[in-house]
Amino acid sequence: MQEIDKISGLPKDLFDINKITKEQQKIKIIVIKRKFSKVVTIVSGFEDQETAKEMGKEMKRKFACGGTTKGTEIELQGDHKRKAKDFLLSKGYNEELIDA
């Protein structure tokens, strides 16, 4: 028997709620300069900490850089503004809602 979604009342196999929320999230990407001329890219606007943590882990691996996740905000060492935007687009986020 199929699982029924409590919110919509439809079978869970019909749609992916995560894809719908990705399309509506407003993501902000900024690059700032810290102490000793260190550049940091900050990606913020994720809905929950788990998503941010997973995305941060993938970004660090893909961009070959260090970084951390603080709440729903990802900090990457270095200037990765364009790479981060391309990465988010490949994951299904809406280009119009990504502020880079």
Features:
100 residues; alpha+beta; Translation Initiation Factor Eif1; 5-stranded mixed sheet; 3 helices; 33% helix; elongated
Describe this structure in words.
This protein is an alpha+beta fold and 100 residues long. The chain has a domain at 28-93: Translation Initiation Factor Eif1, CATH 3.30.780.10. It contains three helices and five strands. The chain has helices spanning 17-24, 49-63, 81-90; strands at 27-33, 39-44, 67-70, 73-77, 98-99. A five-stranded mixed sheet has the order 3-4-2-1-5, covered by helices on one side. The model has no long low-confidence stretch (mean pLDDT 87).
Write the layout of secondary structure elements.
Blueprint: H1 17-24, E1 27-33, E2 39-44, H2 49-63, E3 67-70, E4 73-77, H3 81-90, E5 98-99
Parallel strand pairs: 1-5
Antiparallel strand pairs: 1-2, 2-4, 3-4
Please name the fourth-level CATH homologous superfamily of the domain at 28-93.
SUI1-like domain
Radius of gyration: 16 Å
Mean pLDDT: 87
Reading the helices and strands in chain order gives HEEHEEHE
CATH hierarchy: architecture of the domain at 28-93: 2-Layer Sandwich
Helix fraction? 25-40%
> Major beta sheet, specifics?
5 strands, mixed
What is the 3D shape?
elongated
Which percent range describes the beta-strand content? 15-25%
| Unreliable runs | none
Question: Would you tell me which CATH topology of the domain at 28-93 applies?
Answer: Translation Initiation Factor Eif1
Number of helices: 3
Instruction: Report strand order across the widest sheet.
Output: 3-4-2-1-5
Structural class: alpha+beta
- N- to C-terminal separation? 44 Å
> CATH class of the domain at 28-93, please?
Alpha Beta
State the total count of DSSP E strands.
Answer: 5
